[in-house]
């Protein structure tokens, strides 16, 4: 009788463990971060008004239908200072770093570096200055959204 009770108790515990949980919550931030690109690093070399930016990017590239198509440097006021077009997807190279310049800023000028996906828009950003360095920075979703249609823009995708 004791063995039957133990088996029934174990069976009941297993049955309760399989119960559907209707209270599950999907974290949309995790979903969004999986389909947008992010800046992972920003390093700068060169001289004032002629800087070269080396920008690390992590993006969920699938090919030309979904890839990071540019990174850009924008002022605190939202003016496009420089844009580096990425001519192809980086499916098998994640994260990756691409250089661009010359970027015409002073060493103490605060700027934002952000990345753009061809099908999802802007992702993560870094902010800072050459003098102080750059770190992850949360920009408002609509910050400088008008520069998204400002030249230069990609002219297709190689692969």
The unreliable regions are 3-32
SSE arrangement, N to C: HHEEEEEEEE
Count of β-strands: 8
How many helical stretches?
2
Kindly estimate the percentage of residues that lie in beta strands according to DSSP: 35-45%
> Under CATH, the topology is which?
Immunoglobulin-like
CATH hierarchy class name: Mainly Beta
The strand order across the widest sheet is 4-3-6-7-8
What class do helices, strands and sheet pairing give? alpha+beta
**Main sheet: strands, sense, barrel:** 5 strands, antiparallel
Overall 3D form: globular
Number of structural units classed as domains: 1
What's the architecture in CATH terms?
Sandwich
How would you describe the overall organization of this protein?
This protein has 159 residues and is an alpha+beta fold. The protein has a single domain, classed as Immunoglobulin-like. It contains 2 helices and 8 strands, in the order ααββββββββ. Strands 4-3-6-7-8 form a 5-stranded antiparallel β-sheet, with no helix packed on it. The protein has a 3-stranded antiparallel β-sheet with strand order 1-2-5, with no helix packed on it. A hairpin with a 4-residue loop joins strand 3 and strand 4. The longest helix has 16 residues.
């Amino acid at each position: 009788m004791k063995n039957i009770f133990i088996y029934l108790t174990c069976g009941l515990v297993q049955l309760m463990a399989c119960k559907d949980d209707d209270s599950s919550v999907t974290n949309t931030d995790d979903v969004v971060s999986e389909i947008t690109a992010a800046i992972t690093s920003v390093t700068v070399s060169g001289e004032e008004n002629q800087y070269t930016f080396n920008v690390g990017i992590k993006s969920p590239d699938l090919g030309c239908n979904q890839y990071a198509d540019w990174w850009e440097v924008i002022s605190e006021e939202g003016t496009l200072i420089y844009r580096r077009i990425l001519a192809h997807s980086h499916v098998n190279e994640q994260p990756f770093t691409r250089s661009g310049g010359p970027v015409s800023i002073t060493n103490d000028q605060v700027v934002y570096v952000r990345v753009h996906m061809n099908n999802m828009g802007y992702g993560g950003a870094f902010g800072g200055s050459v003098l102080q360095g750059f770190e992850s920075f949360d920009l408002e979703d609509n910050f400088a959204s008008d520069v998204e249609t400002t030249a230069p823009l990609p002219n297709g995708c190689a692969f």
